[in-house]
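To illustrate this point, we now present one chain and its tokenised fold:
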Amino acid sequence: MVVGSCQLRLAVPGSTSLKDKRRVVRSLIDRAHRRFNVAMAEVDTLEHPGVATLGIACVSNDRGHAQRVLEQVVQWVEGHCEGDVMVLGVELI
């Protein structure tokens, strides 16, 4: 069993309150879960309305598959986010 994890930091432009940020982040998390069947949650910068840090996890029986899924999720988030996306780390265990 391989567990892949990734951490992303997103800029959430136009978000002036935590409620605005939660709406954007919740929508992104729900769509990513449905599309890629990964677990995703906001894990840091919870009190900053313009920044979100997301943790992504996937479980697979193949290391290469887990790596590809995480890469696809990152590319998808970059394509669906209006702000900058920074990959903080990727780990396969």
Summary: The helical segments are 18-36, 63-80. The longest strand covers residues 2-11. The radius of gyration is 13 Å.
